[in-house]
Specification:
73 residues, mainly alpha, 34% helix, flat
Length: 73
């Protein structure tokens, strides 16, 4: 299952995300956890009555950031 949307804040993946102490809310409000919910709805529809034995999540953005930072090329 692929669900990719670039440039989104982590709060869109975590329903219980809160602002760090002293931070101010941005003018454009986004819904915490909405991207996670869309992904889970897709997964549930694809699985139907089946139950997975394992789940893996790959965050490609982090991977590419790591390569830019540490790659000798």
């Amino acid at each position: 299952m692929k669900h990719a949307i670039s440039g989104q804040p982590i709060r869109r993946w975590h329903k219980k995300w809160t602002l760090p102490a002293g931070a101010e809310e941005i003018a454009r409000k986004v819904n915490n956890g909405d991207l996670y919910q869309v992904l889970m709805d897709k997964v549930k529809a694809a699985l139907g009555d089946k139950r997975p034995t394992s789940v893996a999540v790959l965050c490609v953005t982090t991977f590419w950031s790591f390569l830019r930072e540490f790659s000798p090329f």
